[in-house]
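This entry is set out below.
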Amino acid sequence: MPRWLDDRESRVWRAYLALHTELHAVLERELAADSGLSLADYALLVPLSESPGGVVRARDLAVSVGWERSRLSHHLTRMQGRGLVVRETCPEDARGSMVRITPEGMATITAAAPSHVATVRRTFIDPLTEADLTALDDIYSRLRAALADEPEL
């Protein structure tokens, strides 16, 4: 027999879902308007831009953003077509591939980051108090730890 959510639990859960949807929409809309990037593009360009030489093994990139290999492959194909990344063979393993940010990709993420961070700050960080941030840090850490214990399908 399931343990149904009580009124407060249901309200908190639904508020989280609504916040996630609304925040994602604002971030997606403003990032696209400011830079032409999607949140998915941004999610991939950040670790590439921060890695030594701007290159990451494809499987490691997929893990870092929590994507399946097929989703990563399809999205990288679109980004490669726009000149943001290139794929290369892996020198240590011919079956593996490397993803490298291009100079255009680096220029794009560099130009997009200040506005994106300002949007994140305005819509998520600034409305919160220091106590709120401390509480959310603890809450998110506990929730992520609980998820880490979930079996993979």
Remarks:
- The radius of gyration is 19 Å.
- The beta strands are 55-57, 85-89, 97-101.
